[in-house]
Amino acid sequence: MPPALIDLLSRNLALIVLAVVIFYAISSAVRIVPQSEKYVVERFGRLRAVLGPGINFIVPFLDRVAHKISVLERQLPTSRQDAITADNVLVQVETSVFYRIIEPEKTVYRIRDVDAAISTTVAGIVRSEIGTMELDQVQSNRAHLIERIRESLANIVDDWGIEVTRAEILDVNLDEATRAAMLQQLNAERARRAQVTEAEGRKRAVELAADGDLYAAEQQAKATRVLADAEAYANNAIASAIREGGIEAAQYQIAMRQVDVLNTVGKGQGKQTILLPTAAIEAFGDAFKLLRGGK
């Protein structure tokens, strides 16, 4: 190194050191925080501030960034825990939890291992909640169970500055003996429903047949009533004619009835011989005489 340069550096050493210190102080005072993170600042080992996204300023040599915390949503590894239902059935429940840190100062100073703490808490809540429900309720009310687990977990992890965004029950596994018993019960229930459906069908068919018979009887009764009304009307007409026309009208009606009876007898099938009494022949004669108006 040339002597002139050495002499220059020795005379301006203090200025150079001062410039370096000023540059380091300025660079230490400015902290640019990414959008996905928050910085926890300590001063002499105590919490000083939490820096949000953007440009932030701290006191050089006194403050330091102790923790850089990501605020992105995190997913815990899928965990499995055994639980016993209210009807004493052993099940293995697979759960998954999503969360994010919203207050880094609580997460840093109140809990050491966040993931392990949340996993342990979830296991305890799942066992507690499933212990109050029967197996059928666990299978059919899974959405309600998930909501209860999420609410219970949210109340606990709030002290750690954590927000639970989702809690899912991925599967509820049973042992082989329980599966076989449930399958047998399911088959029995299906058979019972089939028998009930068949019995209801037979009952409905009987009801419809009875309704049909009742309807036919009602229609027959109506027809009988109409015929009775017609016959009554005819009898009234005959009675009126007798009152107006005298004995000749009555004799005419009797003769016509006798003719109708003989006509019906003559319509029989096969070869047959009909013996007519003398009164019947006289009835034909009387009817013709009445038709001609004779006496």
TrEMBL record:
Membrane topology recorded in Swiss-Prot or TrEMBL: Single-pass membrane protein
TM regions (residue ranges): 12-33
Gene3D superfamilies attached to this UniProt entry: Band 7 domain
Annotated localization: Membrane
One of the Pfam families matching this protein, by short name: Band_7
Band domain ranges (all copies): 28-186
Lineage top rank: taxon: Bacteria
Keywords: Membrane, Transmembrane, Transmembrane helix
PANTHER family in the record: STOMATIN-LIKE PROTEIN 2, MITOCHONDRIAL
Stated name of the protein: SPFH domain-containing protein
Protein's organism: Paracoccus mangrovi
